[in-house]
Amino acid sequence: MHGLGNDFVVVDAIRNSYDFDEVATSQKLNDRRFGIGGDGLLLVETGAKAPFRMRMFNPDGSEAEMCGNGVRCVARYLYDEGLSKENPVAIETGAGLLSLEVVGDDVRVDMGRERHLRRDIPMTGEPATAAIGFDIEFSGRRFKASAVSMGNPHCVLFVDSVAGVPLEEWGRAIENHEMFPQRINAHFVEVNSPSELSMRTWERGAGATLACGTGACAVGVVANLAGVTEGEVLIHLPGGDLRIEVVDGGTVFMTGPAEYVYEGDFTI
Length: 268
Prior knowledge:
The protein contains 4 helices and 18 strands. By secondary structure, it is an alpha+beta fold. It has a 16-stranded mixed sheet that branches. The chain has a two-stranded antiparallel ribbon with strand order 1-2.
């Protein structure tokens, strides 16, 4: 399945038991030449705190706390397969419980409240201070950046043109920057208007991707905090558009599509 080109191998672990090693399997299946190919492995499981749980493993085998495009795919799958009789449906993730509603071709997600203290990212510096508008140096240059946690960490930089960003060089430098001991997702943002933004993404453990749902949420939050936008914003990603709403001083809603590519079986 994919959400705006951010694609995943989705395994139904509710109706199909498995005993494979998640790390090695994610590395194998997400390989685009010797496997199925994808930006991550999603396991759809029975939850402990909710009826369902999503686990997400990056192509390098690391487990991500959350994935916005991925969780929309999971909600769509649960709804279409009749596994969930509820709409909205509660899904447990590494970032906590989320409420997702299938609305036509889209899925609307209550992402909960954003967090932007340094301890929430985590990043170096005074833990209780805001990670907004700090200086960061890489590739021989200094930038202003902000960091937000949407259950997973994001670094946001505004640029004049996203097309001119050397994504692999800058993205890799930010992902592995010493300021972020657990690595971080990097997002470069261009302001089109007070209601529209464009962004490009380098994801921790995955590299360049066509879209990042939690990253778009983080971008919407930073744009609101900076006064660039207010409330609702349409964000253009290489794979398509997401609508992000920031309400009640920090609660974030994300709306976007989730689509099927194909179904099949694999043997480990």
